[in-house]
Amino acid sequence: MSSPDLIHNAEEMARYRVTGMDCPSCAAKIEKAVRSVGVEAVKVSTATQVMTLHVSDPGVQLPEVERAVAGIGYRLDRLDGLNVDHEGDLDDLPKDLSHITPAYRRALWIVILLNVGYGVIEMVGGFISGSQALKADALDFLGDGLITFLGVLAIGWSLVWRARSAMIQGLFLGALGLGVLANTAYRVLVQQQPEAGLMGLFAVIALVVNVVAVLPLLPHRTGDANVRAVWLFSRNDAIGNAAVVVAAGLVAWTGTAWPDLVVAAIIAGLFLHSSSSIIRDARADLREVA
């Protein structure tokens, strides 16, 4: 029986830079779409936003892969190959980066500032109101902003440097997530009812910020991920914001901190899962290019 390594050696490896991906669930969706057209050997790295696959008939299979991924709302840029730069790192050269215009970069910077800026504000709001759910939701804003920030900086970077940056980012976000989760566990023992009014106010503003963050990207949706992917990101973030709003209402209704703590634990847990995926992918990418 042939081993997977021998099978891969008999096939041709192809790499794509993926645009429009901001979480491990996105990577899983892309891998599922690629497997649906018969390509089983595929790996999408959340850390470097690079998809690697092995195909036996590139001329037939790669166009099918590209159509399948575009159909679920992500853009693929074929990488010509890997070359060693003057520092000994591996560079990947995309065939087409024409969609990376100055206007598009400005739109991304607006998204970064909105996400990181409000993430910091919401984190402060969490401390003022005593809400763990607000702190956990703030992590989502910070995570989205930092991932987009890495995406802007990574345009033209080598694979190894994108992996190193993602590793640092994943460790930083993981530490924040663990801090929020530990604080939530402490509040279970020493309960303090959060200020429901402030908690709800910050969560409603978060919903507005999510919608506003989508608007700068809409004019560029044909050159990047399409509008479906943009709204999927907004929808997923809005679900977290809505959960905090509901928790605030339940805190006011029940007069206990339990709704806040439950929502905080769920959001922080999902966030830590994303952070661990980034770290795992970054380590795998670094091993691959070592």
UniProtKB/TrEMBL annotation:
Keyword presence, DNA-binding: no
Presence of keyword Zinc: yes
Domain HMA: 12-77
Pfam families assigned: Cation_efflux, HMA
GO cellular component: plasma membrane
Membrane topology: Multi-pass membrane protein
Source organism, top-level taxon: Bacteria
Compartments, record wording: Membrane
InterPro entries the UniProt entry points to: Cation_efflux_TM, Cation_efflux_TMD_sf, CDF/SLC30A, HMA_dom, HMA_dom_sf
GO molecular function, one term: metal ion binding
Keywords, sorted A to Z: Ion transport, Membrane, Transmembrane, Transmembrane helix, Transport, Zinc, Zinc transport
Primary location class: membrane
Gene3D superfamilies to which the protein is assigned, alphabetical: 3.30.70.100, Cation efflux protein transmembrane domain (1.20.1510.10)
TM stretches of this protein: 107-129, 141-160, 167-186, 198-218, 238-255, 261-279
Protein name: Cation diffusion facilitator family transporter
Lineage: Bacteria, Pseudomonadati, Pseudomonadota, Alphaproteobacteria, Rhodobacterales
